[in-house]
Amino acid sequence: MPSQIESRTHDPVAATASASAQALLSMRGITKSYGDHVVLNHIDLDVASREKVAVIGPSGSGKTTILRAAIGQGTIRIDGEYLWHVKATDGLRPAGERHARRVRRAVGIVFQQFNLFPHMTALENVREPLVHALGMRRQESDARATDLLCQVGLKDHLGKHPAQLSGGQQQRVAIARSLALRPKIMLFDEVTSALDPELVGEVLRVVRQLASEGEMSMLIVTHEISFAADIADRVLMFDAGKIVEQGPPSQVLKNPTNPRTRQFLRAVLER
Amino acid sequence: MSSFHWDWGFAWAILPELLQGLVVTVLATLLGSMVAFALGMVWTLVRMLRIPLLTPSVSFFVEFIRGTPLLIQLYFLYYVLPTWGLTISPLPTGIFGLGLFYSAYAAEIFRAGIEDLPPGQWEAALTLGLPVRRVWLGIILPQAIRSVVPILGNVVISMFKQSSLLSTITMFELLAAGLNIGSVNYRYVEPLTLVGAFYFAISFLSARIVRSLEAKHAFAD
């Protein structure tokens, strides 16, 4: 783990200063509610360049929602650009869906339910964004898609449809697909929750490998506490729509100060 | 000639003329289906894209088509439009009439097919930065259409049977051929029985095909 990130996240003042200067993902005052039920309550969240942030918390705490909010409505900056606005001389001007689509390319998302396109093969799934978002030519996109699928260990499954693949393989295709646009930040939404226990390992291995390459920022919502401990520079504990505790894994996961965090970890680790 | 009597020789003799009628019926059904699916898709997209004025108008129009009998719509196209200076011959009128009527049902089926797709498909397409056009044509519609193929098959079968109404606008299809033979020869038993047998045979076989499609789909899911 690069020590500069460690020290930055240890020191709250330095963390805030550097985050506002060079945060790759920056969300301000994100609030979300369904009727009377407040899911997210004025959340501010920054993820620095190359930083790996794990999000834990009980279900219904808003942790998946914050991940979705990262590409949703609100004041959101990705890699220096506002998602829904463009800078003008007199402040921010609203920008349309097309602008948002371009800014969003810096974000890759892997979903709990994979969300592969079932009518396409593994290769076609990965090629889809290359051809239709980047406008790559067929040969080039074929080579790049094959490359990505090899990276996640699916060299022998290029021509298979999702229905012919195991859950773990499908999730690895989904990871390869989300890497296609060379995102600067990857969001992982409980990517192992829908998998049979024996398939969790192969998916976590791929995520670990990506993390160890270091280039990308990651925001990882997960129930796998030991995985979060290994991979994250910073852990956020969500409860009732708020971040109740955050810090390096050694603190939040090993010596939590918040009673809700302690209670949650005890419940999860006893499983 | 009051007793029931089946004349095999007569039945055999009228077969060619009935088959000619059957060809017209099948042709009207196939072309009518294309019209129905094409228009139905247009209605669906206009309704889903929520275009001011256009969407409510189309919604009302589709409700109107569903809420009035096909026979009246055919009469209107065939007898009323000419008084407004728009005269079309029976075959195209019949094909358009059938297609228009069933497009209202096809629209509902397409809409259901689209709405039944998991929201994750939209999310994935959105987060991969695909342009809206590609999302519809490459991701949503291929899956939605594939999932409703068996139901559309049932629409075609229903249209095949209802196409007998086209005989009322002087289109020489299967039923009209049978009626014509009957009135010329003063014998209705053989022609009408054979007409019914043709309808049944083709509907029955088509229904079997549709059912096997359904089974295939259930398996693929």
Explain what the structure shows.
- The complex is a heterodimer of chains A (271) and B (221).
- Chain A has helices at residues 3-10, 12-22, 63-69, 97-104, 122-132, 138-151, 167-179, 197-213, 225-231, 249-252, 259-269, and strands spanning 23-34, 37-48, 52-56, 75-78, 81-82, 85-88, 91-94, 107-110, 185-189, 217-221, 234-239, 242-247.
- With 271 residues, chain A is of the alpha/beta class.
- A 6-stranded mixed sheet of chain A has the order 8-9-10-3-11-12, with helices on both faces. In chain A, strands 2-1-4-5 form a 4-stranded antiparallel sheet.
- In chain A, a hairpin with a 2-residue loop joins strand 4 (75-78) and strand 5 (81-82).
- The longest helix of chain A has 17 residues, at 197-213.
- Chain A starts with a helix and ends with a helix.
- Mean pLDDT of chain A is 86; it is low at 1-20.
- With 221 residues, chain B is mainly alpha-helical.
- Chain B has one domain (16-220): MetI-like fold, CATH 1.10.3720.10.
- In chain B, 80% of the residues lie in helices and 0% in strands.
- Chain B is flat and about 75 Å long.
- In chain B, 31% of the residues are buried.
- The mean pLDDT of chain B is 93.
> How would you classify the helix and strand content of chain A by structural class?
alpha/beta
Strand percent estimate of chain A: 25-35%
Secondary structure: number of strands of chain B: 0
Overall 3D shape of chain A:
globular
CATH superfamily of chain B: MetI-like
- SS-derived structural category of chain B: mainly alpha
| Largest sheet entry of chain B | none
- Provide the β-strand percentage band of chain B: under 5%
Give the low-confidence spans of chain A.
1-20
- Helical content of chain B, roughly? over 70%
Major β-sheet profile of chain A: 6 strands, mixed
Instruction: Please give the radius of gyration of chain A in angstroms.
Output: 19 Å
CATH topology label of chain B: MetI-like fold
Give me the side-by-side strand order of the main sheet of chain A: 8-9-10-3-11-12
Overall pLDDT score of chain B: 93
User: What string, H for helix and E for strand, traces the elements of chain A in order?
Assistant: HHEEEHEEEEHEHHHEHEHEEHH
Percent in helix of chain A: 40-55%
The helix/strand order of chain B is HHHHHHHH
Question: How many separate domains of chain B?
Answer: 1
Secondary-structure arrangement, i.e. CATH architecture of chain B: Orthogonal Bundle
Rough shape of chain B?
flat
